[in-house]
């Protein structure tokens, strides 16, 4: 299991009491269309939550509002007690928020190790340094730690363009872990993965440090329900059902809307 990074203790010491994420009445309009409407959601520190729903339910728009890629028309977003509703993305990153995307955003011409090292340095105090890292550099050790955590040790020196698709998704998780995050948004990490790769993804997500909470958007119910402790179902831009994985899996409304009957 991956251990906390060198600055984790300082970060955790500054975490305010209360919830990791608080959404209150978050609404985002595109013209006359409400992509999300009056979304209220609470995630505790270290909690793992799944947000499920069909295409067009508003899941990605919700993520975009949380990260600051777009701003809500109304409502508030609080991260560890701080109102970040109008903050730009980089300010939310500084406060411990990370995200992966549906489409891989990687440097294909660099190695796995180079990608992870750049991610670690990009959120460190040495991000503007032009000096070549020396042996014993703590960020080099952190790079190796993250690569091991996402099961890519054997691919450490390979170009990203040569990786299998599933390995690229694993690498994205390593990048999201750079800089001791406190909360991560995973946007469909199992999309396009084989059954074997899905099992490996479940193991990676399950073994994340317990102080890191996350929300996962996922169409693969088997993945989502195995890694989440709580589930929010979205429909037409609204949260219409919340519960444990077992409660959601056995809910008749959920089965009728999304599963077409009982989920095996």
TrEMBL record:
<dbReference type="InterPro" id="IPR003593">
    <property type="entry name" value="AAA+_ATPase"/>
</dbReference>
<dbReference type="GO" id="GO:0005886">
    <property type="term" value="C:plasma membrane"/>
</dbReference>
<protein>
    <submittedName>
        <fullName>ABC transporter ATP-binding protein</fullName>
    </submittedName>
</protein>
<dbReference type="InterPro" id="IPR003439">
    <property type="entry name" value="ABC_transporter-like_ATP-bd"/>
</dbReference>
<dbReference type="GO" id="GO:1903805">
    <property type="term" value="P:L-valine import across plasma membrane"/>
</dbReference>
<dbReference type="GO" id="GO:0015188">
    <property type="term" value="F:L-isoleucine transmembrane transporter activity"/>
</dbReference>
<feature type="domain" description="ABC transporter">
    <location>
        <begin position="21"/>
        <end position="261"/>
    </location>
</feature>
<keyword id="KW-0067">ATP-binding</keyword>
<dbReference type="GO" id="GO:0005524">
    <property type="term" value="F:ATP binding"/>
</dbReference>
<dbReference type="GO" id="GO:0015808">
    <property type="term" value="P:L-alanine transport"/>
</dbReference>
<dbReference type="GO" id="GO:0005304">
    <property type="term" value="F:L-valine transmembrane transporter activity"/>
</dbReference>
<dbReference type="GO" id="GO:1903806">
    <property type="term" value="P:L-isoleucine import across plasma membrane"/>
</dbReference>
<dbReference type="GO" id="GO:0016887">
    <property type="term" value="F:ATP hydrolysis activity"/>
</dbReference>
<dbReference type="GO" id="GO:0015192">
    <property type="term" value="F:L-phenylalanine transmembrane transporter activity"/>
</dbReference>
<dbReference type="InterPro" id="IPR051120">
    <property type="entry name" value="ABC_AA/LPS_Transport"/>
</dbReference>
<dbReference type="Pfam" id="PF00005">
    <property type="entry name" value="ABC_tran"/>
</dbReference>
<keyword id="KW-0547">Nucleotide-binding</keyword>
<dbReference type="GO" id="GO:0042941">
    <property type="term" value="P:D-alanine transmembrane transport"/>
</dbReference>
<keyword id="KW-0813">Transport</keyword>
């Amino acid at each position: 299991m991956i251990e906390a990074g060198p600055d984790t203790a300082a970060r955790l010491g500054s975490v305010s009491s209360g919830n990791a994420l608080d959404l209150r009445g978050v609404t985002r309009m595109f013209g006359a269309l409400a992509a999300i409407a009056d979304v209220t959601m609470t995630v505790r520190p270290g909690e793992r939550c799944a947000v499920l729903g069909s295409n067009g339910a508003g899941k990605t728009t919700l993520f975009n509002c949380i990260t600051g890629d777009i701003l809500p028309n109304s409502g508030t977003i609080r991260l560890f007690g701080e109102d970040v509703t109008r903050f730009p993305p980089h300010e939310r990153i500084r406060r411990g928020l990370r995200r992966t995307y549906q489409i891989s955003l990687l440097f294909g011409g660099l190695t796995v190790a180079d990608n992870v090292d750049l991610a670690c340095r990009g959120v460190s105090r040495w991000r503007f340094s032009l000096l070549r890292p020396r042996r014993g550099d703590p960020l080099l050790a952190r790079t190796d730690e993250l690569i091991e955590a996402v099961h890519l040790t054997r691919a450490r020196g390979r170009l990203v363009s040569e990786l299998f698709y599933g390995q690229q998704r694993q690498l994205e998780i390593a990048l999201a872990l750079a800089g001791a995050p406190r909360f991560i948004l995973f946007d469909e990490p199992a999309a396009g993965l084989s059954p074997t790769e899905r099992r490996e993804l479940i193991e990676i997500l399950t073994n994340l440090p317990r102080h890191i909470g996350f929300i996962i958007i996922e169409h693969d119910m088997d993945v989502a329900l195995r890694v989440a402790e709580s589930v929010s179902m979205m429909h037409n831009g609204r949260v219409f059902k919340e519960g444990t994985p077992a409660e959601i899996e056995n809910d008749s409304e959920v089965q009728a809307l999304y599963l077409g009957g009982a989920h095996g």
